[in-house]
Amino acid sequence: MQQPEQLSVNEYLRQHIRTVADWPAPGVQFRDITPLLQDPKVFRVLVDAFVHRYMDKDLRPDVVAGLDARGFIIGAVIAYELNVGFVPIRKKGKLPFTTVEETYELEYGSATVELHSDAVKPGDRVLLIDDLIATGGTMMAGKKLLERLGATVTEGAVIVDLPELGGSQRLRDAGLKIFNLVDFDGH
User: What is the 3-state secondary structure (H, E, C) of the chain?
Assistant: First the structure.
């Protein structure tokens, strides 16, 4: 593989995303980000790409919110590097304190995510982060939870966007700015 100095950051990261055919179902091309996390140099390039963006005073959040579960991995590191707080948005039943919840539709059924009722304060500028946008349901639910508590979600950030599934456009149509490092258009 080429070194990051010879490629754009986006292409360098793309080279380290594993595609697993027919998982979890036939016809699905699963984009596996774990190789990005396994190599310390690649992981640093990934984190730095986000941190450098959000150090800008116009984009700097007060809080980073990570979506269960891979959003926790990168979101917590980014929050640490930016010296801001981190809040987890979890699957239903995983948080021990008073929560607010949002249910969203999946391809087959529905799912619910929760956030502690005191996770953010009214007026907080929140960066919402996850590993990937497919249909956008999880990120939309996270956005609604944060807004219900009075926060402003300034941007949704992901490593990978799968634009052909329509999620990023759906989120933009709902007023959420989206930032991604890599997109895959079906191949």
Answer: CCCHHHCCHHHHHHCCCEEEECCCCCCCEEEECHHHHHCHHHHHHHHHHHHHHHCCCCCCCCEEEEECCHHHHHHHHHHHHHCCEEEEEEECCCCCCCEEEEEEEECCEEEEEEEECCCCCCCCEEEEEEEEECCCHHHHHHHHHHHHCCCEEEEEEEEEECHHHCHHHHHHHCCCCEEEEEECCCC
pLDDT digits 0-9 by tens, 3-56:
556 789 999 999 999 999 999 889 889 999 999 999 999 999 999 999 999 999
Contact 92, 112 (CB under 8 A): yes
How far, CA to CA in Å, does 74 sit from each of 49, 130, 132, 136? 11, 8, 12, 18
Residues composing the chain: 187
Q: How many domains does the chain have?
A: 1
Full residue range of the structural domain in which residue 174 is found: 4-183
Mean pLDDT of the region 110-139: 97
Give the chain's end-to-end CA distance (angstroms, integer). Answer: 19
CATH of the domain at 8: 3.40.50.2020
pLDDT at 7: 87
